[in-house]
Every structure is written in structure tokens, then in C-alpha cells.
């Protein structure tokens, strides 16, 4: 967060309009998959990147549910993942059906780690939804029941996703380029 701004938006990868159109369809897919089991599920948004996606998604879900965030950090700063680490208090999920909500599936380390963590905490079931999944072998091989969009393997920001804490407020998902350069950042 203390890093100076080194990047700027390059191309729009997923426009806000496409996200808005996908949201009710994705929420319906989730509600139908759970059936009656959707009553009383615990939605666990992974902070901070999932906050915009989760806010949009839960308001499309008519069921009685709880929202309890998990804070997991994998980037110390910059665009290279260093592996997931829990920060702060984790949700109580003993005997509960958990739906993890994350912004993006990249290496799959975060979701794989959290699925095991939720199961270890006694969750009755664990499923996951991500807004974005990169077209990478590791991401495609990671179990994730509900995917918003498959995108190219680019470093993206906006709609909750950040780069060094910046750009979470952008309504579109965009690729980034180093200030002064033309080519987008891959990772
Ligand atoms: P994974 O553990 O490598 O699958 O990465 C998942 C986490 O890394 C996500 O929760 C994001 O916070 C972050 N992340 C991965 N790729 C990107 C990206 O392109 N832009 C912003 N954050 C990303
Ligand atoms: Mg992030």
C-alpha cells in the first residue's frame, strides 16, 4: 500500500456491463446448485479483492445466508504471488455449508489452501466461486464450482482487484502496463 504507483490501466479485459449481465446468471447457477441446501450457507469472501464481487453476488441470492470474511494475503506488494497467509480471525464454519468467494483464480494456491482450512475447521461442505479464472493450466486444474469469466493470463485490476492496493475502485476489469510502457504486464 505504501508502494508508489508504478502501473496504469492498459486495456479493458471485462467491461462493467458484461459483469453486470453475468451477475444474476451466476447467482442463479449457485442457488440452483445448492437447492434447498442454500438456506443457512455461510458466504466467505476472501479479503480484500472479493469485496466488490461478493457485494454484487450476495444481493442476487434470495436465500437466508450469512457473510463472514476471511483475510488471506498472498502478495507482499507487486504482481508476484508469494503463497497464501491467514491474517486475523477466521469465520466459524463448524457444521456449515461454506461458499468461498474470491476475485481471481491464478495459481490456485489460495483456493486450495482455504478449502482445506475450511474443512479442517469442520465445514459440512466447501464450494467456491471466483469472478475470474486465468487460462492457465494450474488455474484450470483447481476445483472451483462457479466461475464468472475465463480471461487471458494477464495481471488485471479493477472491480475489487488491486495492484499494490490501487485500482480496486475501477468498475471494469483492466490489464495494466508499467507507466511509460506500451505492453501489458503479464505477471
Ligand atoms: P492464486 O492463489 O495464485 O490463485 O491467486 C489468488 C489471489 O492472488 C487472488 O485472491 C488475488 O488476490 C491475487 N491475484 C492473482 N492474480 C491477480 C491479478 O491478476 N490481479 C490482482 N490480483 C491477483
Ligand atoms: Mg489481491
Helices and strands in order, then pairings?
Elements: E1 7-14, H1 16-34, E2 41-47, H2 51-58, E3 65-67, E4 70-73, E5 85-86, E6 97-105, H3 109-120, E7 125-134, H4 137-141, E8 146-151, E9 156-157, E10 173-178
Parallel strand pairs: 2-3, 2-4, 2-6, 6-7, 7-8
Antiparallel strand pairs: 1-10, 4-5, 9-10
The protein binds inosinic acid and magnesium ion.
Question: Can you tell me about this structure?
Answer:
The chain has 187 residues and is of the alpha/beta class. The protein is 24% helix and 30% strand. The chain has four helices and ten strands, in the order βαβαββββαβαβββ. The protein has helices at 16-34, 51-58, 109-120, 137-141, and strands at 7-14, 41-47, 65-67, 70-73, 85-86, 97-105, 125-134, 146-151, 156-157, 173-178. Strands 2, 3, 4, 5, 6, 7 and 8 form a seven-stranded mixed β-sheet that branches. Strands 1-10-9 form a three-stranded antiparallel β-sheet. β2, α2 (51-58) and β3 (65-67) form a beta-alpha-beta unit. The longest helix has 19 residues, at 16-34. The radius of gyration is 16 Å and the shape is globular. It starts with 6 loop residues before the first strand and ends in a 9-residue tail after the last strand. The mean pLDDT is 92. It binds inosinic acid and magnesium ion. Inosinic acid is lined by residues 46, 49, 74, 81, 84, 102-110, 155-157, 161.
